[in-house]
Amino acid sequence: MAEECNHQCSTCSVNCSSRERESLTEKQNDASDVKHVIGIVSGKGGVGKSLVTSMLAVLMQRRGYRTAILDADITGPSIPKSFGIGTGSVNGSELGMIPPRTKTGIEVMSLNLLIDDEAKPVVWRGPIIAGTVKQFWTDVAWNDVDYMFVDMPPGTGDVPLTVFQSLPVDGIIVVSSPQELVSLIVEKAVNMASLMNIPVLGLIENYSYFKCPNCNTEHKIFGESNIEKLAEAHHLKVLAKIPIDPALAKLCDKGIIELMDCNALDAAADLLEKLPASEKK
Ligand code: ADP
């Protein structure tokens, strides 16, 4: 932000970075009151981004906050399945689309809830996908929401860029695997957020180890992690290391992730609780 900025874009003549974000951010639906928007990002697919999104939403809901998930991973949506909700659960009203609620009350919107056959691939070009995500923000009548988690499309391409620009993201959490951390893709995601003035709240490593149920030894299946080094290089926090846990995969497959019994993300939830109250979006 420029030093001369007076924080009032309507009266300020300085063309600083805060003005750019403000002008591109879409206004939320009139019926919505979303206080915090947290993006869950990854450098590539399959690292557990959707699982982390679901687990964080479950944890914050358990702690008494009104929680929602906006599934922006349009071509690989897996959130509805993890919560056991499906096509036909979205209703409409004059206010907009009404997102279905999970068994514990988390509001969810995903393309998979709107298409008639989940097995059909979404063969859409980037601008259409990005437009759909924007509509999930503008045309969905979210209620009072304390924490909205956005399951972002993986990578740093056109769609995540548009999502970052159009949604008022308070901060992002980057999910990666030990394997992926040796490459540059995580750094690219971190650098993209920094270019867009979006705070990186921290890093989460998934598939960190497998704890043998017989001997309790922790096995590093995907090799030694260098998450601490990466975090240090970017002055970031390591929020969690999640083990490979077949029970978690099973809960997702059965649509009952809300029954999870895992404390790996407690520190991340603590951090979210401490986020300053944001202005109305
Ligand atoms: P992404 O959103 O990054 O593409 P997902 O969250 O959909 O990845 O995870 C891919 C698959 O791996 C899912 O079936 C998920 O249940 C499983 N999975 C993710 N993390 C774990 C874990 N820590 N232990 C066991 N299974 C996991």
Task: Characterise the protein shown here.
The relative contact order is 0.19. This protein has helices spanning 17-24, 49-62, 79-83, 126-138, 158-166, 178-181, 185-195, 227-233, 246-254, 266-273; strands at 33-42, 67-71, 91-93, 96-98, 107-109, 144-151, 171-176, 200-205, 210-211, 218-219, 238-241. Helix 4 (126-138) packs parallel to helix 5. The chain is of the alpha/beta class and 281 residues long. The mean pLDDT is 89. The strands form 3 sheets. The chain has a 7-stranded parallel β-sheet with strand order 5-2-6-1-7-8-11, sandwiched between helices. A two-stranded antiparallel ribbon has the order 3-4. Strands 9-10 form a two-stranded antiparallel sheet. The structure holds adenosine-5'-diphosphate. Adenosine-5'-diphosphate binds at residues 42, 45-51, 76, 78, 206-207, 242, 244-246, 248-249, 252.
Beta-strand portion reads 15-25%
Level of helix content?
A: 25-40%
Quaternary state reads: single chain
Secondary-structure class: alpha/beta
Quickly count the helices.
10
Distinct small-molecule ligands in the complex: adenosine-5'-diphosphate
Low-confidence stretches: none
The whole-number mean of residue pLDDT values reads 89
Radius of gyration: 19 Å
